Amino acid sequence: MIRLLRSIRHLILGLLAMGCAPAIAQSSLAPCATDAAFTRLPGLDYACIRLRSGGHVLAAQTPDKSKPSVLLVHGLGSNAHRDWRYVYPTLAEQFHLVMLDLPGFGNSAALSGGYSFDGLAKALDEVTERFELTHFHVVGHSLGAAVSLFFADRHPTRVDRLVLIDVAGVLQKQVFARQLLQANRSATLDGVMGLLGQGRGDAWIDLLEDQVDASSQLLAIPAVRNAVLGMPLNADAALGLVEHDFTAAIRNVRAPTTLIWGQNDTVTPLRTGQVLLARMPDARLQIVEGAQHMPAVERPEATSRLLLSALGSPLQPRQVHVRDKTQGDVSCKDQPGATYTGTFDRLSLTNCANARIERAFLKQLVVEGGSVDLVQVAIDADAVALQASNASVMGTGMTIAGDTAVRASNSRVDLAGVSVRARKQAVEMAGSRVYFSVSDIDSPEYRGDAHFRWPPPR
Fold first, then answer.
1. What pLDDT was estimated at residue 316?
2. In terms of residue numbers, what domain contains 141?
3. Keyword Signal, does the record have it (predicted)?
4. So what's the pLDDT on residue 347?
5. Which of 136, 215, 217, 238 is a plausible cystine mate for 69, CB 3.0–4.6 Å?
6. Are strands 447-453 and 283-288 parallel, antiparallel or unpaired?
7. Based on the domain organization, do 152 and 60 belong to the same domain?
């Protein structure tokens, strides 16, 4: 079991694969001690703040407090607040900036009670109180974006605008694990194959994906977690991302939100941004061309422009797609890469690999073999809405309604940011895997938020 648990380390290290070193252990240093690897940025006034829970965090601000205030929250990795080094000079021309090293990162001590989003959000609360901020904008990246989302949900009256950059950890944990493994096969899957036996292909990802779920309880034990991961600071934070369910926070945050995403992010792909766009009450999505997971480092000029606009300019309203005249029944057979947009009655895909349906209205979708990616699609059926056989279906930002919402046979159905309305049955499946991330279901057998692999947990 320990050998299998060690495979989870590959998943966690994938989050840190962007050249980030682990956070240093603070127990051997004086509070907020300056280390050569964590030099301070020019033009900032630094403070070492003692938290009420114990421990210290390094925080900093720009001198001019007459400007609107912005809290910058960094992501995983050892650079901590220095992740903002290329964009903060431009932002400081218009805003009063506050930044910190999150507990356990850079020159801040780890949380004494272990990592939790509640503990990290309390650290933000205490830092902003120390700097006498009442209302302010919040900008977060990766882990910091997840913490910022949590903070905005907890403190709705304090956050004016919210900017989330390449948010990590939104998708259901097994879905998140799978996409990370697929994006980093050479660094992760190949290393795990030797632990699991002989073979190739997606079956190995399925097996490792199951280990993510089966090992959760053991990994909750600190001694086991530290023995398996060997990097308690960054790894604990990454595990928190995988385990936390943001469904309610995403639905509840009312602050005007701008989502900024690296076009080529493989750690938290653009799909996560599309989920947030679909589920947050007041959101818009901006893409940084050519960037991966760290736009503020990889494309600082473009990111600075987007940040200035998101924080200081009128925000564009959400786009609304209007149903047009139906194209009737449409079929695809043995045609890879087919794409569809618009209104259809019955859309049938037979052995059509890598098909894509986007901004569409359907009365029924039938997928036999092949694979399809659905984005901003509404299916409203009299009987079965989505029927999949020997197929792979990924749906993002959808609504699905019918007597039976999903019928799956020997298929994988991955639904994120989806609302399901079923008069008789939400999911009917045989030999299939059906996943829900940040979704909701209204059906006779289940009503409520859906962030799990079907069937619902009891």
1. 82
2. 15-170+244-312
3. yes
4. 98
5. 136
6. unpaired
7. yes
